[in-house]
Predict the structure.
Amino acid sequence: MSAVEIWVTIVGLTLVTLATRNFFIVLGETVQLPERVQHALRYAPACALTALVAPEVLTQHGAWAIELTNPKLVGGLVAIATMLITRNTLATMALGMGAFLVMRLA
Amino acid sequence: MKGLLPALDSTRRDALLAGIWRAVPSLVATGIWGIVAGVAMVKSGLSPWQAAGMSLLVFAGSAQLAALPLIAAHAPIWVVLLTALVINLRFVIFSAALYPHVKKVPLARRMLLGYLTADFGFAVSMARWVNLPPEERGAPEQIWFLVGATASTWFVWQVTSIAGVVLGAQIPTAWGLDFAIVVSLIALTLPMIANRQALVGAATAGIVAVLAASLPLRLGLVLAVVVGISAAMATDVALENT
């Protein structure tokens, strides 16, 4: 992206933050979301984040890379295991990055 | 403290300080995320000024971290914004829960409070207000508690993000620290997968994202999110009918 495009993106992201955090703060109680829609809004972030992460760790150079020689897969699996066991962000970052760097050098 | 905050009566001052005090444990987590986001922003190719601007203006860690790999991959701006929007959708639900407590504040200041209320500020405040009877919602103490909890979060986030930007600029790109973005996204995502519906949705979205990764303009990501949410909703309906 060019510098201008990056600044446009930053301003756009700011508007996204403003709009979502203020949605009902501005609308008040005039609009009620159906329960079904509220559920969908709850599931959406996990779906989007997983869709971002999965190709990063499961593929290499555009092809499936589900093998233990893939440093990103190993780092990702170690991070997932650490987070599930410890619930500690710092430990997850440290062990996930550590496993990735060790595998990359190996 | 009296000299520092002379314009506030003691009830409001106590509420403000209580908000800051209750936020302290989450401020540690905010600080760690700030440093991670700061390093990640410069390592994914933003200039230090762009990174500082992003931190100061956007003030949404998970949306920022999610936007970075897309910016680095030259995805279209609308795909970046749509992805951030989906990740921020949880704030729409938060805003509905927050409204009764801030409804007496004039609109412009109310919107400033809404903008400042990220995950931790929301969680700290709701934990305090959960047992309030409906007629007591919206009292001035709640506003000042919220100001204390959210403004302290904003301050710590900005200071640590900018520290991360400065730190990140010193670290050679060859170290592969851009993978820190992926690891931090994993740490963010797992707590969101709190039930079977979310697990089905996330797993589906992940598989579709890999299968559709070759689509142009990162449209595979958009498709994955749509299919993932649909799968979660279908699981919702299926579980309800059993």
Notes: The beta strands of chain A are 59-60, 63-64. Chain A touches chain B through 67 residues (CB under 8 Å).
